[in-house]
Amino acid sequence: MQRRLVLVRHGQSEWNLKNLFTGWKDPDLTERGVEEAIEAGRRLKAEGIVFDAAFTSKLKRAQRTNQLILNELGQRTLPVVEDEALNERDYGELTGLNKDEARKTWGEQKVLMWRRSYDVPPPGGESLRDTVARTLPYFVREILPVVLQGKTTLVTAHGNSLRALIMTLERLTPDELLRRELFTGAPIIYEVNADSTIESWKDLAGSPAAAS
């Protein structure tokens, strides 16, 4: 039985372009973001992938990326499950601020700590650990069982909510997770064993990597 999970970070959003902390705000994709989503669909089509199930967040940039991918695969009518558990990390008081403006307000070191530490949240927001605590139980309860049934499954979400899943899938430490780069619109394909460990994975933004 083939158990395949594909993770895709949404294409570039309007606030990505402006270098703003986005979090749970709901900007749309830029023109480049649309092109990235379409290209993700083309890459998956070239891999011969056909989806049986799809999940995304409650935010427009992920939903639109998801639909553009499915359109490119000729699967525009595939039912898609939307849940806020897959939303981006909540940046609290940083939301909507330009990253340079935030550094001027709170200082370079404090903003760096909020962005790059695992367990220190920005004021009124979530740490990466908080995001893991929100996202991972949903994955285990709702998404992983579908994958283990042998259904090829697409999850289109956000940089930090996907890192929460990748931490478990790739067995990363918090430090390794913080260094894990996710490119917009670049699918990651996981082949999953029956015991939910990863047999292998391939990042379509780069080269194949074997699971450790």
From TrEMBL:
Keywords: Gluconeogenesis, Glycolysis, Isomerase. Pathway: Carbohydrate degradation; glycolysis; pyruvate from D-glyceraldehyde 3-phosphate: step 3/5. This is 2,3-bisphosphoglycerate-dependent phosphoglycerate mutase. Substrate binds at residues 9-16, 22-23, 61, 88-91, 99, 115-116, 159-160. Its EC number is 5.4.2.11. Coiled coil: none annotated. SUPFAM superfamilies: Phosphoglycerate mutase-like. InterPro entries: His_Pase_superF_clade-1, His_PPase_superfam, PG/BPGM_mutase_AS, Phosphogly_mut1. It holds the Pfam family His_Phos_1. PANTHER family: PHOSPHOGLYCERATE MUTASE. Homodimer. It comes from the Bacteria. One of its GO terms (molecular function) is phosphoglycerate mutase activity. Belongs to the phosphoglycerate mutase family. BPG-dependent PGAM subfamily. Catalyzes the interconversion of 2-phosphoglycerate and 3-phosphoglycerate. It catalyses: (2R)-2-phosphoglycerate = (2R)-3-phosphoglycerate. The record marks H158 as: Transition state stabilizer. The active site is at H10, E88. The lineage of its organism: Bacteria, Pseudomonadati, Pseudomonadota, Alphaproteobacteria, Hyphomicrobiales. SMART domains: PGAM.
